[in-house]
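Contributing new records

If you add data, match the layout below exactly. Sequence lines come first and carry their own label; structure lines follow with theirs. Keep one chain per record. Anything else will be rejected by the validation script.
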Amino acid sequence: MKTLIVYCSSHGTTEKAVQMVSEWMEGEVLAVDLKRDKITFDVGDYDFVVIGGSIHAGSIQGKIKHFIGKHFEELLTKKLGLFLCCWHDGETALEQFDKAFPEELRRISIANGIFGGEFLVSKMNFIERQIVKKVSGVTVDTSNLDTTAIMSFVMKINTTLSLV
């Protein structure tokens, strides 16, 4: 089985999550950061597609939205996993997840994950630091990345892949 992981990472948190997912997944995995990588790939070549990103100013990255829009019909025919890195948990995180991914994709997705997040203040520009400080009060690097949620997400996918 071949898996494509498409994601965007602004400060490195989503990339950390993708590294864990990639390591723990069975089969061949290609991970592509739409923001940084200049890799050409064909979604049709993959049996499973994982899409993930993070929340900035209440929304998932535009490159993720663009990828979903461009490949929407094909994604509906794929085994799919969706994940989100976000600072919030509970109802707020679920609302952000629902806003980030179209209902049709959420409905057919085999695995959905909310992985927690980080404020990597040391990697933020001045404006980002000021916004984070004002909104959350965070002034130093802080993490609530949930490795248990990541492991659970991967286990759902691996179980599905082993049944094929």
